Amino acid sequence: MIVDSHCHASDKWYEPVETLLDAMDRNAVDAAVLVQMLGDFEHEYMLEAARRYPGRFVVVGGVRIERGDACENIRRAADAGLAGVRLRPGGRSPGTDPLALWRYLEELRLPISCVGKAADFASPDFTALVKALPGVPIVLEHLGGLARPDVDDRSKMAEAVLELAQYPNVHLKLPGLGQLAPRMAELDPRIAMPLQMDGVTAFIDHIITAFSERRIMWGSDFPPVASREGYANALEWTRLSLGHHPASTLRSIFGDTARRVFFQD
Fold this sequence. Notes:
The chain is an alpha/beta fold. It has a single domain, classed as TIM Barrel, CATH 3.20.20. Helices cover 38% and strands 13% of the residues. Strand 1, helix 1 (17-26) and strand 2 form a beta-alpha-beta unit. Helix 3 packs parallel to helix 4 (100-108). 44% of the residues are buried.
């Protein structure tokens, strides 16, 4: 079973869920996690899609953490089917407990998909937050910011982010290789994977060793992936680059980890 852990679908921006569903069906992807895009806090479109296509989608929604009613809003959304919440690493609640919403998500056992820069995840503040919340899965998007284009020194930042591997509730989303490797200057049809992969496979192997396959999940970043290598290649080239790993490792990264965390299988 293949699960895509990071997709966006909306009736306001990007593409409707049917466009994602078509890409999934053409590439034998069984299920996906619909992640609320930044700046949007309405969940009904995605929740309705999950109801219309049972078993295909779960929803990770956004919340205005700075509002005093954030916990109440999440409680209502969870009752309606929300399977997780998207937060920034520096997001804090008002009042006397800045981690109030984070703690509430731990109480609800709702996993957190965390979006930010590598420097944010490598900060002492974030490490302290992780240590304070051992009972909730915290999933770092885009390899903990290491796959973002704004990462300054990937090798240097990687060692800092990988320090979080010691905390068993921290997981990573592995994106398509187009976020990690630039395309070749010319697209030669004889080359199966036209990316400049120098050091990329070893880099991913290092991450897998640190976190283990049980805490890494593949995510396409649909539909922004269309401006890079495309949906099919984001899946196939990533699998190809990991072909030297055992089948059990691939099953975890491309399905089992996301199912366990977000679908709670």
